[in-house]
Design goal:
The strands form 2 sheets. Strands 3-4-5-6-7-8-9-10 form an 8-stranded parallel beta sheet. It has a two-stranded antiparallel sheet with strand order 1-2. The chain is α/β, with parallel strands linked by helices. It has one domain: TIM Barrel (Alpha-Beta Barrel). The chain is built from 10 helices and 10 strands. α9 packs across α10.
Length: 286
């Protein structure tokens, strides 16, 4: 069992700490997360031009939270404004980050067939180009999968990707099984706290425990109780409360659920595991 002091130790596998909502309050946001025993956060990049900033942010605030790590990538929602030269820039930044223990993979990348106005061909170009980079460097990927499960699965089968995360998963049970077969874990967060989210809750309840991860996607994907408590946006400090509801859906104790998702994250992102192994406070308890 993984414990921090007398409480479960939580891990947020998807949190946009570089979002504008956090710019002026980031130290307080991280401190609040630590007070709730959120000891590790993955920060994905959304634009090639942000790579250096995200790396610096992870280094700076990693002094407060040693378990803070990052990935580099171009998010599908930003592909309309991306240039082909961004792939070369991203490759350069990935190469530069390979010596950084806080760098754990490529992301957030993927396809979004829900948001209107996005060029599907441009999305597919950048997604496949980044999968090529993941294959070249043998790095895991963090995926944005929205109404695009089958297209993403098809692309993954054409590449040799070691592992990855399907963030905010909301596909079918059969699609979930296919991602798991390809070495992926599935991220669950605030969406599962809504009673009407029957499909997400079924997935969370019935999928193998070793395929499940916890995440906030903060400042996005607010949990059900955020609006009624007049809170403006999601943040990593809310993860334990979200995770308690996820654990209840699974019929598990908080401690057992926290330990399982921590193990899952370390398994799917080996560089994160290696980084945490060098931190005495974050070593896995046998």
């Amino acid at each position: 069992m993984i414990m921090g002091a007398t409480h479960p130790m939580w891990i947020d596998t998807h949190c946009h700490l570089d979002a504008p909502e956090f710019t002026k309050i980031l130290p307080q946001v991280i401190e609040a997360a630590l007070e709730k025993n959120v000891q590790a956060i993955l920060l994905p990049t959304v634009k090639a031009g942000d790579c250096q900033e995200v790396r610096q942010l992870a280094t700076l605030y990693g002094q407060m939270m040693p378990g803070l790590v990052y990935t580099l990538g171009i998010h599908p929602l930003y592909t309309n404004q991306a240039q082909e030269s961004d792939i070369a820039l991203l490759e350069k930044e990935i190469s530069k980050s390979l010596s950084d223990p806080r760098f754990v993979g490529i992301g957030e990348i993927g396809l979004d067939y829900f948001v209107e106005g996005l060029d599907p061909h441009k999305q597919e170009y950048f997604f496949n180009a980044q999968l090529d980079l993941a294959q070249k460097f043998q790095l895991p990927v963090v995926l944005h999968v929205r109404r695009s499960q089958d297209a993403i699965l098809k692309a993954l089968r054409r590449h040799k990707i070691p592992s990855g995360i399907a963030h905010a998963f909301n596909g079918s049970f059969q699609q979930a099984e296919q991602f798991i077969e390809l070495g992926f874990k599935l991220g669950f967060g605030g969406a599962a706290t809504y009673e009407r989210a029957l499909q997400i809750r079924r997935l969370l309840k019935e999928l193998p425990l070793d395929s499940i991860l916890t995440e906030t996607d903060a400042p996005d994907i607010p949990p059900a109780w955020l609006r009624e408590e007049h809170i403006t946006f999601n943040e990593p400090a809310f993860l334990p409360r979200i995770a308690r509801e996820l654990a209840a859906i699974r019929g598990l104790s908080e401690s057992d659920f926290a330990a399982a998702v921590w193990r899952n994250a370390m398994q799917v992102l080996p560089r994160w595991s290696a980084h945490c192994a060098d931190l005495p406070s974050l070593k896995l308890a046998s």
